[in-house]
Amino acid sequence: MQAFLLDLNMVLSMPFMQNALLAGLLASVACGIIGTLVAANRMLFLAGGVAHTAYGGVGLALFLGLPVLPTTLVFSIGAALLMSALSLKSRINNEILIGALWAVGMAAGIMLIDLTPGYRADLGTYLFGNILAVSGSDILLMLALDGLVLLLVVGGFQGLLAFTFDRDFAASRGLPVAFLHHLLVALAAVCVVMLIRVVGLLLVMALFTLPPAIAARHARTFQGTMLLAVLGSGLFCSAGLVLAAMFDLASGAMIILVACAVFALSLLWTKLKKLREKRHERTA
Amino acid sequence: MTWAVEIDKVTFAYDADPVLENASLRVGVGEFVGLFGPNGGGKTTLTRLMLGLLQPRSGEVRILGRPPAQMRHKIGYVPQFSTASFNIPITAFEAVLTGQINQKALPFGFGRHWSRRGDGAERAREALRMVGLGDYIDRQVSELSGGQKQRVLIARALASNPDVLLLDEPTASIDPQGKFCFYEFLAGLSKVGCQNSWCNDVNDTPMTIIMVSHDLSITTGPLSSIATVNRNIVSTPGNTPDPAMLELLYGTHPQSCPFDHFIRHIPHEQAEECAECAYCAPSCCDEAGAEYAPRAGQLGDNNSFAQQRRSV
Known about the structure:
The complex is a heterodimer of chains A (284) and B (312). Chain A is mostly helical and 284 residues long. Chain A contains 13 helices and no strands.
């Protein structure tokens, strides 16, 4: 136990680790909130498309020699708006189009990185995250994006709740549902970019879905689900990072495994609770 | 006189083929109208036109004399049960509060639309009590039965104190009989309007109710008139469908088809005179009521109607 605490102390005292933990917590704020909205609106496939297309933005940034996160942010929001516009046109099979864009975005990213002279990037850095790479300017960008997400969601909470509960009805009362749809997909793109450093593009979806899924099982209100998802996501990120550093394992993967383990426990918990209730009924 | 709903020679098409063509309907204030049509006949399109979510290619839709987009606060919409996400964590009370979305809040849907305290909240509670969910106000909607969920949607529409109530396929998930007298409840609203303390100002305005359904069994309810929509609209007072409506709903059938015989035996002044002629010469029918003389070769779905009648 003492050895563990010593290890923990050492891990936490490393400056890159402090940056990484901060990045994880900042990303959790946006992802817990937007992940809850995206899951409740059944836009996970769309979010998956946005996450993978972001790789095209990474490729573009490296090819043009621009800062990676801001460039990817602009690229991803553009791709997200394109996909969200396609998803509203229900007449054609929009899942095929989104699936195609998903692949095209990734392929373009790989091509652009190949074409970048003298650069052989480690794909894994962006696909699976790299906590060593979190810079001070990344932290500032994430702070600003969190501010934006909080401002939009707190300011528009009632409209978003009505939109999420019943889109048709909300439209009949004059709520701009198409705008809110685009806004949510764009905010999903923002979250994806924030998570690139922490868990990487491929594992974004897990952090996007698991905390809200766990939260929804235990919360009684929509706000509560968001808050619980933020806390859960922050916890998974922190625990995953620390464990990864202590056992010298991939941090992104560790974060996801921690989240999955808690999700499994949450399922088991409700199952046991139901069983106990049933037994209670039988004896009563 | 101002009609509650006026659909004036409306034509609408999503692409080349019109879904509605030169369709007209007038609904007076306080009427309780059943609007029927086969699937694909334009019911949902008509609903969306009345809500101002679609614009007609030609013709005009007016709600209480004005374009629907200006009258959104006067229309209470009860969408199809399946459109709402009942699996999100939200209480019945909050779900009903969402009925108070107003366009006067900040642009793009931002800002405050409702409060959990005050008049609006009291209206929401009252609406839940009206539909018999007084004991379920703080219950999660995911824990309610199908019929109770449907009633939450009705309460949501009522909480905004509408003059026109528009229900899309409300019979899809009604509770078993005896729990909640659905038609009687609606008919009560249309006769006397809202009788609760919070709508004193409109106490003498009867609510106009339009119920859209593919299910003819709702004609057993106390409707003041019925209309059928299938590219065109045919309406009639009372709650007995006339042969022209049935033709619009189910197509016409050759005389050898038992369904044709069945349609002819629907009680109707003219149809009664011609009751025997299901198996007689076509000329007999032509004399009695030329408009429902059968046209050969058009076979429709002859099961659903019979089943519905039986369930009545």
